[in-house]
Amino acid sequence: MVKLGKNARSVSIVGVGCTPFKDFETHPETQGIGEGEAFGYAALEAIADAGLEPRDVDFFYHGSANPYLVGDCITPNMQVADWIGMRAKGSVHHSEACCTGYVALEQAVMAVASGTYDVVLSGACDLASTLPVEHQPSHIRQDFPLSVMIPSLDKIYDRAYGRPLDGAFGVSFDNWINEYSMQYDIDADKIDDALNGLTKSLRRGAVANPLAWYETTVEQDAAANGFETADEYLKSMYNPKVTQYLRVTGNAPSADGAACCIVCPTEMASQFKQKPIEVLGIGASCLESMVPHLEKKATAEAARQVYETTGVKPEDLDLLLINDFILSSQLLAAEEVGYLPKGEGWKYVMEGRTAFDGDKPINTNGGRTSYGHAFGASGMADVYEAVLQMRGQAGEHQVKKLPKTTILRGFGGGQNVRISILRTVE
Hints:
Elements: E1 11-18, H1 35-49, E2 59-63, H2 67-71, H3 76-80, E3 90-94, H4 100-113, E4 120-127, E5 130-132, E6 141-143, H5 146-152, H6 162-165, H7 169-183, H8 188-207, H9 218-224, H10 230-234, E7 256-265, H11 266-269, E8 277-286, H12 294-310, E9 319-322, H13 328-336, H14 345-350, H15 367-371, H16 378-391, E10 405-412, E11 416-424
Parallel strand pairs: 2-3, 2-4, 9-10
Antiparallel strand pairs: 1-7, 1-8, 4-7, 5-6, 8-11, 10-11
């Protein structure tokens, strides 16, 4: 059993930056920019947010889910340095699929906690709504069809035994929610209602967030298609089930985006522009994709680690952010980390309590299914959201009670889980 040691020194987030999570080819603010410019957008915003200049940063981390497929490059950290004024500075690129952004925070914290560096920039970028055109400048893109997407997903499975056995990727999406339904005797209709309830709440948060993918509520979409209610629309042919439980709205739209943060020793944090947000601890667990119930098991283990090392209890938590590119992950992970009671989370959803204006807010930015999913960048976008909420700077989707303690659960690549706990520095 892993027992985490204490960091050599406390680390805090002092700056954050994030691009819109849109289709960059059509969005007016981002039209025509490539990966280097997108990462630069988020990185320079984070540096300015901290009141720093690029020369003040000692080291930076760059992440992306699959740089070769999505970015047509290798070692992209070397290719973005000039965009952020960091030529010749030390850097590392890493790739942990959809958990990349959460690992980006972990690595930056470790670099500062060890005493090696004082000011570290960390972020991730993926232009996930399109594909690059080989041998062309990075802003020239082409469609990203399922005929390319689906075959690429088997790369997350073990090559020796697991990969040839993967019969249907969607089956793994239903793995946990199916167990949940049997364990707590919740029928398919109630699960459908709960997931549709999540969609409505998350979309409201996204519409109130200028960076999010969706700009219309489910109610507006329903009216535009001739339905009297959102529920009728969500259960119609316009939103069919694509697995046993998940409808189209239960899967995340692939977006282009980048997000970054600046971390430093907490003892230095008061020198900077913004209210410091301390990273109390980070738990980690990885399981190969063919392990049954891997997301549940890895979430439980990472949660155990971070609660043990920080002394934080589930009842201390004010806000939860989850990488829910599978919509049911939000409900299930919320229960697994103790934020919602086991077997009761679906009731909280039906009552609207998990919305950004509810008493148990989850994914206030809209989550992956409404905010958009830029693969590796999504986790750092959640860090960005957590920090804004904890500062009271989230604007129209600000939660009612200013969060003091936030937990973030990252999951991606069928293997990696990271759980971070953040706390406002008084």
